[in-house]
Amino acid sequence: MFPRLSHMHRFVAVFCAIVVATLMIFNAQTTFGKNRRFLRLNSIMVEKLQDGYSSNLFQSVLPFRMLESTTEGQMTTAPPIVNPHNFSYIINPKHICSDRSLKLITYVHTAPVNYKKRQMVRQTWGAREILTKYKGTLVFVMGQVEDKKVMDAVKLESNRYGDIVQEDFNDSYKNLTYKAIAALRWISTNCKQVSLVLKTDDDILVDIHSLMDYMNSTVLMKQGMKKFIVCNQWLSMKVIRDKKSKWYVQKSEFENEFFPPYCSGSAFVMSFDVVKDMYQVSFYTPFFWVDDFYITGLLAGKLNTTYIRLNDGYILNAQAAMEKLQQDNKQELKFFHVHKLTHIYKMWTNLNRRRNVSSNGVMLNPTTLAGNGSMKKR
Question: What pTM, to 2 d.p., does this model score?
C-alpha cells in the first residue's frame, strides 16, 4: 500500500497532474496543426505541379525541401516512394573513389556492346594520367543485356580496367533514366569527397583542359561549389508527337507541347550537392523515360539549381564537328558530338596540339613541334 499523503501533498500532486495533462493536450494540438499545414502545403504544391502537365507524371511529385526536418528536429512525414530504384549491382567498383583527395568524378553513359567507344574515352580525354592532373577519375555506367557473350566480355573488361558500374536493369533506350539514377546513386554513395561531377555520353569528345580552365576561372570563382549545373540548356524544346520517331512522347505521358527548360544530356557538369539531392528526390518523382529532361529538368529544377548556360561551348551536329573545331580560333568549344571514332582521335590530336600538349597531357616543346611539321600556322 502507498503511504497516506497530507492534504498539502495531495493538492500539489493534483496540481502537477493538471499541468502535465494541459501541456500534453497543447503539444498534441500544435503537432496536429503543423501536420495539417504540412499536408495542406503538399496539396497546394501538387496542384501547381499538375497544372498543365500529365497527372500520371506529376501526381506524386513533392518539393525536396518538404522532406527536411522541422525546427524541432523531427522529420516530417515523407510522401510515398513512387520511383524505387530497387536494382542490384552486377559490378560495383567501390575503390574508384577511394582517394580522399579526389575533386572530380566523371561518369559516362554507355551500353554493354560499346567497348570501342569506351576505349576511345580511356585513350583520349578520359585517360587516367590526364584526369589525375585535375584530381579526377572516371567510371562507365551501364545496365545488363541478355547476350551472355556481351555480359562475359564486360566482366573481363571490368577485371582489366576496374572502371565499370553495372546494375541489373535492362539496358535499353527507354531505360536511360534508370541508368542516370544508377549514376546518381553510385556517386552519392561512394564519392562524397568530390566537388564536381561531369556527365557525358560515350560518343562525346571533351576538351577536358579547356573545360577545367573554364570551371576554375569562371564558374567556381563566381558560383562557388554549390547548387549549379553547367550545360547546353534547351529553353523551348518541342515535344515529339511523331509515332515513327524514337523520341515520340504520348499525350498521356506529357500533355504540354513544349518541355520546361532542361539540359542536353550529351554532357553537363554539376556540383556534388546537386547529384546527392537529385538522387534523394528521384524516389518521389515518378519515372519518365526522357532521361535528360527527367534529370536536369524535373529533378534539378525542384532543387533551386542555378543553370549556367554554356551553349556556345557545344557542337552537337556530328557532321560538322571536325570543321567547327578547325574554326574555333578562340578555343571556346568544349564538347563535341562525333559519330566516327577515327574523327574523335584526329580531333583529340588537334585539341592537344593547339595547347602544346601531348595526348597524355604532357607539355611539348613548340620548337620541336614546328621542326617535325606537326604544328600548323593559325
Answer: 0.78
